[in-house]
Write a structure and sequence with these properties.
heterodimer; A: about 400 residues; alpha/beta; Quinone Oxidoreductase, Chain A, domain 1; Rossmann fold; 2 domains; seven-stranded mixed β-sheet; six-stranded parallel β-sheet; about 30% helix; globular; B: about 200 residues; mainly alpha; binds zinc ion
Chain lengths: ~400, ~200
């Protein structure tokens, strides 16, 4: 089959690889009909999470049709079922899964010893996302082996296009969880840093959950456009001071809830000297992540407020103002998304017409064009916001 | 750490590459990579062989300068090998200018190694040309073209419009483990026991 394969920093190729096969009784094989490139794939593209091996298949946002089912998954899945595959692989049985903390499933990370060493305790297996989370082949491919498939799937009905449900596997529940863990009140201002795909979903989620005002921060006009279309007030950080504007919009008190939909690769600009400092340290290997957004959120957030972090961080950050954080009594909520905890409800909302997540798709291409689209997406060329690949 | 590295291995059943297809690395990226490694190599050489370099060029006494240039080259190399490669390559072009200016000072008639300096100058000029081509290529490949971006003003994501969407999911119950500490709950929502705390 063909698949997008990681060969090294900025080197992703559309290769021909051997087909996946059932390995465990709980596995299923899915023929991928649609998959997407995620912002977090760019961290691997840049090799900022150095736990990839040349030959690893990329991709954790995918859906398709079940074509083979292992003996112990047959009670939940059958050949021909249409499924979205959540990026978090879950067993459904461990203590954490029972609590709904699916992204920290205790069973599915097959590189548990490595992950225990690096993280203290292993988290769930993820598709196509380094050997720290199991080293599972990803879904930017024609076929995908889904381990623990009896639990790791979201069934979707026929007759609803891929584009509307594909994002149930990651960015929609990720934006949703980011907003949910803000526990939004009707009096709340929710400020969202980053208008990439997750930021866009977080904006829509905060609007649906009834925030008083949603403020979106970015500097790319097309992304701010899309944020505004979704009901956000926008701040272009190239043109105005984020802190001043946020205070202005909240009567000087700061937003109650802040969402970091950027993560470890904050935009670098001489107008934000800390980002230049972080980039330099990162190049020298003295810091893995660029936490500009964390610093700004902690500074501007209303005391006793909540900071929600769906953006991916990889390792160590520097100069995070712990003093402000502690004295202001802020709550930080973070984590990879507990995808399956939200998807029944979210599928229902899509079917009801409350939201149509396909609005975020700007490019649809074949798998062969995938490597080039990684570059276009990374360089934000051609007004690219979300790329869907059709294997 | 040895444990971690040796433990990273692909699992047996995973798909294996049969043959490779088109890469996300373009010609400009490969050129940047080559020039980046060239910088690293040159930088290391300038650091460890400063004396031999100054002797060959008749620039005895300038060892500290050569070593400083070596550190500078390492910097160019690191940036050229990063995803901000265009910055690295343009910094190399600037560095080339500095190298040329420095070599020009050694083109004195009384320098017995004048011929060597001439060869070095020619080499630097050649590399400068490559650096300019590389820097222009990387800039062109990775910059956002000027001009109007697409307009996404119509992309609400809400089939019934934004106004209908505001608060449409208020039926959603935030699970108890995701409730914010009631610190910023509406003031009238305070728990009765908190309100009625005796003094
Ligand atoms: Zn993702
Ligand atoms: Zn589990």
């Amino acid at each position: 089959m063909r698949a997008l394969v990681w060969h090294g920093k900025e080197d992703i190729r559309c290769d021909t690889v051997t087909d996946p096969e059932l390995e465990q009784p709980r596995d299923a094989i899915v023929k991928v009909t649609s998959c997407a490139i995620c912002g977090s794939d760019l961290h691997l593209f840049h090799n900022f999470i150095p736990a990839m091996l040349p030959g690893d298949i990329m991709g954790h946002e995918m859906m398709g049709e079940v074509v083979e089912v292992g003996s112990e998954a047959k009670h939940k899945l059958k050949v021909g079922d249409r499924v979205v595959v959540p990026f978090t692989i879950i067993c459904g049985e461990c203590d954490q899964c029972k609590r709904g903390n699916f992204s920290v499933c205790q069973t599915t990370n097959r590189k548990k010893q490595l992950a225990d060493k690096v993280f203290g305790h292993a988290t769930a297996g993820l598709f196509g996302y380094t050997h720290l989370t199991g080293g599972y082949p990803g879904g930017q491919a024609e076929y995908l082996r889904v381990p623990f498939a009896d639990a790791t799937h979201i069934k979707v009905p026929d007759g609803i296009p891929d584009e509307k449900v594909l994002f149930l596997g990651d960015i929609f529940p990720t934006g949703w969880q980011a907003a949910v863990q803000c526990d939004i009140q009707p009096t709340d201002t929710v400020a969202i840093w980053g208008c990439g795909p997750v930021g866009q979903m977080a904006i829509r989620s905060a609007v649906l959950l009834g925030a008083k005002q949603v403020i979106a921060i970015d500097h790319l006009p097309e992304r701010l456009d899309m944020a505004e279309a979704g009901g956000a007030i926008t701040i272009n950080f190239d043109e105005e001071s984020v802190v001043e504007r946020l205070n202005e919009l909240t009567g000087g008190l700061g937003p109650e809830k802040c969402i970091d939909a950027i993560g470890m690769e904050a935009h670098v600009s001489p107008s934000m000297p800390d980002t230049v400092y972080d980039r330099a340290k990162q190049m020298l290997g003295a810091e893995s992540d660029r936490p500009h957004v964390l610093r700004e959120m902690i500074y501007v957030c209303r005391p006793a407020g909540v900071i929600s972090i769906p953006g991916v961080y990889g390792g160590l950050v520097d100069k995070v103002p712990m003093g402000q954080l502690m004295n202001k009594g802020l709550t930080i909520r973070t984590g990879q998304t507990h995808v399956n905890r939200w998807t029944d409800d979210l599928l229902h909302r899509i079917e009801e017409g409350q939201i149509d997540p396909s609005f975020v798709i700007t490019h649809t291409v074949s798998l062969d064009e995938g490597p080039e689209m990684y570059k276009v997406f990374r360089d934000k060329q051609d007004s690219c916001i979300k790329v869907v690949l059709k294997p | 750490m040895t444990y971690s590295i040796s433990n990273i291995a692909r699992s047996k059943g995973d798909p294996k590459v049969l043959h490779s297809g088109p890469s996300s690395l373009g010609a400009a990226d490969r050129m940047a990579r080559a020039l980046g490694w060239f910088s690293i190599g040159l930088g290391v050489t300038e650091l460890i062989a400063a004396r031999r370099i100054t002797r060959a060029l008749g620039m005895e006494g300038k060892e500290a300068l050569v070593r400083a240039y070596g550190i500078r080259e390492l910097g160019h190399g690191i940036v050229s090998l990063s995803s901000d490669k265009h910055l690295g390559l343009w910094s190399r072009v600037a560095g080339d200018g500095l190298d040329i200016a420095t070599l020009m000072t050694a083109m004195r008639h009384d320098n017995p190694k004048r011929d060597n300096v001439g060869i070095a100058l020619a080499a630097v000029l050649g590399v400068t040309l490559l650096d300019i081509i590389g820097a222009q290529g990387a800039t062109a490949r990775h910059s956002r073209p000027r001009g109007r971006p697409s307009s996404y003003r119509g992309r609400t994501g809400f089939p019934q419009g934004v106004q209908a969407a505001r608060g449409a999911a208020k039926d959603f119950k935030v699970p108890p483990d995701m409730r914010a500490a009631p610190a910023l709950a509406a003031v009238s929502d305070r728990a009765p026991q908190e309100r009625a705390r005796p003094h």
